[in-house]
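All the exercises in this workshop are built on plain-text protein records. A record pairs a protein's sequence with a compact description of its fold. Backbone structure tokens are a discrete shorthand for how the chain folds in space. Once this layout is familiar, the rest of the handout is easier to follow. As an example, a complete record with its sequence and its structure tokens follows.
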Amino acid sequence: LPARRPVPHRRRPQRERRVRLRPQRRQNPQAQRQGVRTTLGPRGIDPGGDRLPGRHDAHQRCRRRTPPLPERFYLPVGRAYLQALVRYNAVLGERNRLLKISRDEQMLCIYDRQLVEQGGIIHRKRSEIAALLEPEVARYYRHLSSDREQVTLEYRSELNDTPFEELLLKSREKDFVNGFTTAGIHRDDLVLHIGGYPLRKYGSQGQQKSFLIALKLAQYALVAQAKGEKPILLLDDLFDKLDAGRVEQLIRLVGDDGFGQIFITDCNPTRLRTILDKTGDDYSLFTVENGGIVR
């Protein structure tokens, strides 16, 4: 038998190791994202691209500073509110870091005084905005539902019933155990009801989207009132989870003098033209074909 030829050992080429360097996070990124917005930009409604405000995860809500009102909706709040929000988030982060490593009561008292001061400013402004927002949301929703359903919006905060200082003292031992602050305005929430029942649990997709649109229109009204001019309104893909009746009611609603220029997008021009003709308002229809706009 012929001798076997030795098989040369092939070494696999070593892969180049790449090290990904993450840039240092900016201080207070949440506050920077939460609406330091001074220009009057367009207000958009995308029924499929947003979700109702609410407490999705109470544990994460304690740790992540995600307040639902009013900065989430870019409502006019003023410089004092934004400054208080930035300071509150900074102090809250320092307090949470201290809770993980030490039981320094003296430092906690210092942090608590700062949280109480800034939290009071935030709570008062949110209560004021919620009081303005609630009747507008109810009015717009009644119009969208042809007055068949009643909705309510409530600003829920632990500070509504108990002073902030007392809340922090009561929860201090719990904070030590969990390693983060379990009470404060960072746990605030918007509670939505339809017919007396929680909207997120019992409302249909159409009802939830209608409420979201009513919330956006109320936001539009508050911004227009605060700025003294009407923003551009963008209505994107209205027929996503909305029936033709509610869409027609919405078109009629935004066609009055309370709204300015409006852009509407839809993939069915015949359907959109039919609804626009029913309203009797003037409009121009444009079609996007092969990357170009045709009138």
Remarks:
- The chain is about 45% helix and 10% strand.
- The first helix runs from residue 29 to 33.
- The radius of gyration is 26 Å.
- Strands lie at 43-45, 151-156, 189-194, 197-198, 233-236, 262-265, 287-289, 292-294.
